[in-house]
Amino acid sequence: ERGLAVRDLVVRYEGAGKTATTAVAGVDLDVAVGEILALLGPSGSGKSSLLRAVAGLEPVAAGSVSWDGRDVTNVPVHRRGFGLMFQEGQLFPHRSVAGNIAYGLAMSGVPRAVRARRVAELLELVGLEGYGPRAVSTLSGGQAQRVALARSLAPEPKLLLLDEPLSALDRGLRDRLTAELHDILRRTGTTALYVTHDHDEAFTVADRVAVMIDGHLAQVDEPARLWRVP
Ligand code: ADP
Ligand code: ADP
Fold this sequence. Notes:
This is ABC-type quaternary amine transporter. This protein is an alpha/beta fold. It is about 30% helix and about 25% strand. It contains six helices and ten strands. Helix 2 (about 95-105) packs parallel to helix 4 (about 140-155). The longest helix is centred in the last third of the chain and has 17 residues, at about 170-185. The structure holds adenosine-5'-diphosphate (ADP) (2 copies). One adenosine-5'-diphosphate binds near residues 41, 44, 46 and 49.
């Protein structure tokens, strides 16, 4: 059993007093190695809670998260070997572009020459050759997200978790970057779980789409086979 297996997962937020929200209400989900799965649904449907629970950022009330058959439900975030990419504001503002991309590699003791090679390779992958020495503050929103993608791919994560990575960008740029992101994930063979509220984005980026409504998965299928809203 390879890849990600989520079983009967429940995420609950205890409110003040007796109000509690069940954000994820018993979800089963599999992502095969090399697959890109989009989690699509309206705001508040529980997508982010599910992704955060898979990452280990949110405690689980019930159920399990496994990778390659190993239960990682109680494994801390940094030991899961998963990568994360968020909407915005994730780069270190006082480091260069290269410094941002290389940060995790430096932390895990990858030698300087190897880091430099890897950084150059990743900059090329995201279409930012030569941007290594630049200050992060000089980047456009789209460029900053390319750098964030390069950084999250740097350690070659087993699974990349993306939470609305392009939602802060304007429509035209978002469309172009969605196609590019798909291409980059494919070329690197990255297994990905991609949260979005945008149909077009989900259909462009993913091999399969899981539609989430009120904490449940309403359907999981290839884009061409999903029910269409008339
Ligand atoms: P989505 O990502 O689909 O927008 P979320 O997972 O963010 O959905 O939210 C699902 C539900 O959980 C919503 O009702 C939301 O208000 C609630 N929720 C999310 N985060 C918290 C939190 N930290 N504390 C309390 N309730 C939360
Ligand atoms: P910072 O000082 O911003 O933390 P550094 O400039 O020290 O970052 O670079 C961090 C890493 O990136 C190092 O491993 C270095 O080898 C690599 N690096 C630095 N500049 C470049 C560049 N222009 N192209 C590719 N790699 C670079």
